[in-house]
């Protein structure tokens, strides 16, 4: 019940309210400084193999250690970064960090998935950024995945399409994020070289509703398999959701049940590759959800 009311509060809160109040320009200036001075840090949320519950990948999620406002989540600054043309340097920082994470944890054999926004694909040479991050860190391209929303895929310009193709040719995975919530879900799969998709948390919240929620989950898991893609179900918070996700045929999952977004220093990796993150409620991340 506490979770429900928390969610209701989040839904009622509009990020634009605070953004307008504090003057976008000052946030822009601060964000510029933040990128330069290393105030942006990357947290890592586990992706697990549902059958074994072993951590097989991480999603990189950016946070801002703001000097006076504390730890800020991406919803407070990604939009501003996009408008202020700061998303390219911000995104480049995250891609470099993700590659550095992989190269400094040789016992970790999984992938790191990095979120990229359309503007990164459209306005800058994402392929060049990715290639230089891989080269600098000596990381194999197959260890990196890029998450793009289906709307982002749709909006990607013609030039951006060739960027996506070049990235795939390089051996980097493209993954559709928040699948099912954007426009033209299926054409994003048809028109792009996609290797995986992540079912949006909106659907996970409806697991247990036999008339629609469960049927959509089953249909999406089946679609994923039919297309030879890998599927990740997002936002698993309860054992009941976990059990249903497995029953519906999902292979991989992500959510607070398995681990919050975690600062790198709290992650340990055994020599056999087993990954440990702190468990327990909101162990490490922001107090979201
Ligand atoms: P996303 O890529 O869909 O990431 C999932 C979001 O859901 C994350 O929020 C994560 O903390 C949260 N989450 C994960 N599991 C659960 C769960 O079980 N329950 C609930 N309630 N939430 C869960 P976060 O970190 O606040 O990120 C929000 C969005 O910001 C991301 O959504 C992504 O679109 C964007 N983002 C994050 N990092 C970056 C980045 O480096 N670059 C860009 N362009 N966007 C980013
Ligand atoms: Mg994502
Ligand atoms: Mg997502
Ligand atoms: Mg999202």
UniProtKB/TrEMBL annotation:
Domain EAL: 24-275
Protein name stated in the entry: EAL domain-containing protein
